[in-house]
Amino acid sequence: MHEHKTGYTRILKMKKNSEFLKQLQSYVPEKAKNLSLKAQIVWLLHDLIDFPKCKNCGKTLSDKNIKHALLGYNQFCSHDCANKSEFTKNKAKQTFIEKYNCENPSQNNDIKNKKIQTSLKNYGTTNPA
Question: What is the predicted pLDDT for the residue at 59?
Fold first, then answer.
């Protein structure tokens, strides 16, 4: 992984080398020719032939949705879409089941007791509402 990161940094430093950029662009798909250098590198590294889509709403992802050249595009177009996604909800449920043996941490008796103790300490009552 370190070698790719170093290579990517070298490519960005070589931006001024127009001959190199011409060679690089000869490998980039036609749809990506007008994108930023970073986006073009992502397209090459991940063998993209079309713009990726948001896994929740299907919206086409833009250059702003690139995490890092090695990681490629985010899976979602926004935090809102990520939070609404069934994939994210199921992943959270699975994590809660692994950590707390229930679908929601608030269903765990230890966490319920901790909430009560915190409420007593901060507000002097078990239910500040």
Answer: 93
